[in-house]
Amino acid sequence: MSDSLVLVERRGDGERRVAWLTLNRPKQLNALNDALMDELGAALRAMDADEGVGCIVVTGSEKAFAAGADISAMAKYEFMDVYKRDFITRNWETMRSVRKPVIAAVAGFALGGGCELAMMCDFIIAADSARFGQPEIKIGIIPGAGGTQRLPRAVGKSKTMDMVLTGRMMDAAEAERAGLVSRIVPADRLQAEALAAAEAICALSGPSVMMAKECVNRSFEAGLSDGLMYERRLFHSLFATQDQKEGMDAFLAKRKPSFRNA
Ligand code: DAK
């Protein structure tokens, strides 16, 4: 097994391929330390810039997507250590700047920073073995990578309060009912299903995929009128692309489109 904390592969057969990023600290249940987050950030930046990549999948092991930030690394920190060094904000925020779609393929534990990392991705495909939670309260802290902000946007206030204040876990079925995950698949099908979803995205027009992601993300930042205007302007701009002509011509000619990402 490689020493890398994040394994980077390219999967799929299409012209644009899937970047497959596997968190690789299995003995520590993929506890997220600074070195791992540095590697993940570097891989995300590289794959986002790679013209041959159309979609990114982030995954972990069968037992854990990630069981949270590394408690052994955090245990000794004082307030001034974390405040002055802007504790782990530096490498955690990379995910927010990725423009290509990122799918979290989650099996096993996604806890604390692991749940927050999954929520930073564009959508979550969960194995039936997945368990989500924000248990930080049990070790005397609170979620620090967006859990108190992204979880209520996904599942509402009541369930977020329940999760954050009691630290309990929810299983995949509850997570799907609550809207945290987009779909559940049998654990032994997780990789195949995530790859199929990512390949389907790779086959589409890259610019329209990126604009769709931008617009949905905008809905979390802007009021409705501004969000609608943002969508309208990007929608209009797609009529300047070759791929819009190709997509519509192909539909009318009853053939498969051949997108050029232009
Ligand atoms: N950190 C370090 N090591 C961990 C770990 C973690 N979060 N989770 C598990 N491990 C290690 C265990 O210590 C154990 O190591 P050894 O004893 O074998 O050396 C090994 O992984 C296997 O774990 P267990 O023996 O405990 O396995 P079990 O199946 O019995 O239990 C478990 C699995 C997931 C229920 C349990 O390991 C557990 O409760 N883990 C801790 C979960 C947790 O509290 N997570 C939240 C951590 S706090 C921020 C960004 C992020 C954060 C904060 C700020 N900024 C951007 C500012 C995030 C904070 C957190 O995530």
Molecular structure report:
This protein has helices at 34-49, 71-74, 79-84, 89-92, 113-120, 147-155, 157-166, 172-178, 190-202, 206-218, 224-237, 242-252, and strands spanning 6-11, 17-23, 53-59, 64-66, 102-106, 109-111, 123-127, 131-133, 169-171, 183-185. It is an alpha/beta fold. A six-stranded mixed beta sheet has the order 1-2-3-5-7-10, sandwiched between helices. The protein has a four-stranded mixed beta sheet with strand order 4-6-8-9. It is globular, with a radius of gyration of 19 Å. The termini are far apart. The model has no long low-confidence stretch (mean pLDDT 96). Bound molecules: 4-(N,N-dimethylamino)cinnamoyl-COA. The site of 4-(N,N-dimethylamino)cinnamoyl-COA has 23 residues, from helix 2, helix 4, strand 6 and helix 5.
